[in-house]
Amino acid sequence: MKNLLLTGFGPFHTHPTNPTGEVVELLDDTHIGHWKIHGRILPVVFEEVFPELEKAIEETKPEAVIMTGLAWGRDVISLERVAINCLDSIRKDNKGNEVHDQKIDPDGENAYFSTLPIREMKLTLDQLEIPCEISNSAGTYVCNQIMYLCLKHFAKAHIDLPAGFIHLPPDHGLRPESLWEIKDLSHAVSEVIKVLK
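and the corresponding structure tokens:
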């Protein structure tokens, strides 16, 4: 059995819940395919999010990492292709911090690409008729930040494992016009995990 670190976020901004945190709680300590799932909920705070992820990596010693975040304006599962070296707040984080037009790492690479098999994941979701896309923008908020720093962490350590980010749409409980329930989002995440070798 291999270890997979699955992360999500708690509530932020004006949202009373966050479906990514709920999905992580549902899948934590379960077995999907040959993966043992270790779930962690990360803070929506610029300065705290990566230290918490680092701690989770040390604790779980994962052989794959899938991070998830809420994309309020999207209606499909978004498999993120790339994280860019840019922080530009669209809103304050949960401690009231705002950052504009800054690099995540002043001396870092301009971008890091997901090492998840996103094309194969999309084909799997397409076959299951689960609405999805490959996205070329993870934004410039905490989701992009943690994707960038996670991929940088493994690249600098010369650790070759599948890691990347998936944006989830809001569930019906959070946005009434949404057709997604938490169980649907959990199912979609479970299916992409099964793609991993």
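(Above: one complete record from the training split.) The chain has one domain: 2-195.
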